Amino acid sequence: MNKINIAIAGLGTVGSEVAKQLQINNEFLSKKAGRKLNLIAVSAKDKSKNRGFDQSKLNWFEDATDIASLNEVDLVVELIGGSDGVPLELCKNSLINGKSVVTANKAMMSKHGYDLAKLSEKNDCSLAFEASVAGCIPIIKSLRDGLSGTKVNKITGILNGTCNYILTEMREKGLNFDEVLKDAQDKGYAEADPSFDVDGVDAAQKLSILSAIAFGISPDINNLSISGIREVDVTDIIFAQELGYRIKLLASSKFDKGLVQEVSPCMISLGRQISNVEGVLNAVDLDTELAGSVMLTGYGAGAEPTATAVLSDIITVAQGKCPYVFGLSTNELSLNVDTGEKENYRYYFRLNVIDKSGVLAGVTEIFRKYSLSIESLIQRGRNPNEEVPVIITTHETDFNTLQSVMEDLSKSKELLNKPVCMKII
Ligand SMILES: NC(=O)c1ccc[n+]([C@@H]2O[C@H](COP(=O)([O-])OP(=O)(O)OC[C@H]3O[C@@H](n4cnc5c(N)ncnc54)[C@H](OP(=O)(O)O)[C@@H]3O)[C@@H](O)[C@H]2O)c1
Q: What are phi and psi of 51, to 5 degrees?
């Protein structure tokens, strides 16, 4: 059996597990690859750390970028993370030197994926990144290969396990966002600085990668509207339940005459399969022209699930498969596509007001002014001259009307704080 020499840069949660699996399950994995998967070099910052695999016979590199010029390395596995700097330099130089690259780096693929894809084509080597979106869910291979025979109309996904865990815990335990976030940080499900996850940036980067493959465009995170879950209150979760919905941070994209990509918390009808994807699980629902709806679900993070996707890429590369990175030659990918028109939706509003006469009339007047028809209005209990939430759901409306209503509500003296609004799906 001939061999493929592999180097791993980054030996944290994912990198250590990949190295460990390449050692303990080498025979099984090499048989699948049809070649001996030969791990020869590694790089991380701290050589003294015990990482749960045998490093004694491996070449250690202080500077990960040195790996790119090692003649004996055929495949570089980048598991450092971050959009620029060392990982980018390592991947670029490896491709320039004709080495294939496997990465789990969504930040880099979202920002520099097009340039890296060009380099991989020019130098006739593979660039694989299955683990960069939704952990172990084989969504990139599914979109690029399994479903390449059909157009994709729309992508809808739960792409951030931290947010899904927080929203699930808020619902199950009746706790507020801050309390659940702290608990998630204590358990290691959320980073010390959670903004990347809870503000929707992580999901947005992943969505831009999926949109690129589904719609034949270059990944473009600038063409994407993002709002995270910080404003979701336990009150919203309780009302969602009562109204027959569940709140999820949804990433969705559609390409018709233009591209519409959004990450935002949404009220999802309990009848939809994706509403039942709970905890740290991720899911992607693809609405396709010929195959109808295809939904995949599984763990979006964690050492073993993510290593599964990285190992699958290593096997694919070792087999010599080298598909177009985003499903089309980079010459065929569309660049700088226009933003499309947002779809019409029904909406949920939570308006915190003082419980006194005339307030409701003032608020509903704003909806009447823009002909946004109210489907239901709930003000639960009485709390004279104190704060109460007013919950309004509307009939379907267009985005411009929604924006006008939101602007007027934000300026209204009747509201004690910013109105909260979510799409109903
Ligand atoms: N964790 C997950 O569940 C998950 C899921 C999907 C995708 N990913 C992606 O996988 C990648 C790795 O994530 P991770 O969670 O494994 O990260 P991590 O635990 O923070 O590990 C990062 C590793 O990179 C090493 N490193 C940092 N700077 C370096 C440098 N300049 N040169 C060489 N090594 C350097 C660190 O070294 P030390 O150990 O010495 O500090 C560490 O071993 C990221 O792109 C991430 O987005 C992660």
A: -115, 10
